[in-house]
Amino acid sequence: MTQPTWDAVDAYFSEQLIGHDPVLEAAAAAADAAGLPHIAVAPNQGKLLHLLALTAGARRILEVGTLGGYSAIWLGRALPADGTLITLELDPVHAEVARGNLARAGLQQVAEVRVGRAADSLAALVADGAEPFDLVFIDADKPGNPEYFARALELTRPGSLIVVDNVVRGGAVADAASTDPVITATRRLHELIAAEPRVTATSVQTVGSKGYDGFTLARVQG
Fold first, then answer.
1. What's the domain count of the chain?
2. CATH number at residue 192
């Protein structure tokens, strides 16, 4: 199988199960116009996040890594009118693009973009005694994932879901000899998860328009 095949399959399922969505398409166009990197989740992956949030009955969602707000729109749409989405972004330019996209999506009342280092923003949430989040989506700088996951555990409750994106890295995660900081951090993340009695988790490999990668899904047990 090749990338053109993966692209075609993604396009087919997106057409059948998602269809034309002017708000999401405008968000992607705004991100492109602002020169943001093309690393947002694919439409079918965004829909998966949306369905997970709906299934969990999420009222509070935390996202680590906003980019242009594409995934935040999918997550925010799963919230009730009195729900809360806090999304963390390092780059002020990315954050402004995301705020505009979230406003055009009608989510400005439930979504808040916080700018700064994710580690600092997460520490502040913990220090402030933030109400637990029902779902946490981690999709920021990969070397930070072990710390982000540890903080997510402090900010969730039994029954909460934690999703960590981009954990397969084209299969490189299986290379125990790798010195790539992204790979070593990803392996350390999974060692932490495996040793953590408060969660049960699995990882899923994916192929599609974003290439060969995957995600880890963890449920907080107690």
1. 1
2. 3.40.50.150
Give the DSSP letter string of 67-117. Answer: TTSHHHHHHHTTS-TT-EEEEEES-HHHHHHHHHHHHHTT-TTTEEEEES-
Give yes or no for a contact between 140 and 88, defined as CB atoms under 8 angstroms apart: yes
Per-residue pLDDT of the chain (222 residues; tens, 9 = 90+): 699 999 999 999 999 999 999 999 999 999 999 999 999 999 999 999 999 999 999 999 999 999 999 999 999 999 999 999 999 999 999 999 999 999 999 999 999 999 999 999 999 999 999 999 999 999 999 999 999 999 999 999 999 999 999 999 999 999 999 999 999 999 999 999 999 999 999 999 999 999 999 999 999 997
How far apart are the C-alpha atoms of 124 and 187, rounded to whole Å?
26
